[in-house]
Amino acid sequence: MRTRWIIHNQGLDLVNVHLFHDASNLIACNSSPSVYSGNRQKALRYVINRISDGSYAPVPFFLFGDFNFRLDTLSLVESLSRSADVQTVKKDSSNEVEKIICEEKDNDHKVLLHIETKLFAYLHEAVFREDNGRALLKYDKEITAFQDVITEEDIRFPPSSYPYSEDYNKPTQYMNTRCPSWCDRILMSHSARDVIHRDGGGGQQCGV
């Protein structure tokens, strides 16, 4: 949905976006970038092209909503399991991968990472919260294809747009159906960022 606003004599477009999610963690692990990331890239490029097609006078714009951006799953899994024994389990009736299990080589061979279609369970999930998940930002790559057109403020909060556990005794534990990610975003054209930061009004960081 696209709406146009005039605030203090400044025209702005606000565009709400909801892109496709990753239907399977296993398929997301097949390639880097994943097929899902490629689909989101095409959809977002379509939205940006529609905004810029000349149908209306161009003004700075903001894109906001659930982009369903995911961390580069294959690269992340390779990093998390670098020192682990990796076992790929396939279905008996086909060659289709059913689960990926990564076990620690010591520590009594505890399961470090367990991945299925709707399961992403990492033993040391605190890494997604420590220092606001800063160490994982290098895997947050989906916006890079659009840096010539859009940008965003610095991310200084942990992956928080994914459901937490429904167990009230574990309020900071993520649900283990998908890898935690920064899905909900506010992106903007470079001209919109200039509006925010002009007259000394910028410099604020995104946070919760």
TrEMBL record:
Superkingdom: Eukaryota
Enzyme class per UniProt: hydrolase
InterPro entries the record matches: Endo/exonu/phosph_ase_sf, INPP5A, IPPc
GO molecular function, a single term: inositol-polyphosphate 5-phosphatase activity
EC numbers on record: 3.1.3.56
Residue stretches making up the Inositol polyphosphate-related phosphatase domain: 1-203
GO biological process: phosphatidylinositol dephosphorylation
SMART domains, per database record: IPPc
Family according to the record: Belongs to the inositol 1,4,5-trisphosphate 5-phosphatase type I family.
UniProt protein name: inositol-polyphosphate 5-phosphatase
Biological source species: Anguilla anguilla (European freshwater eel)
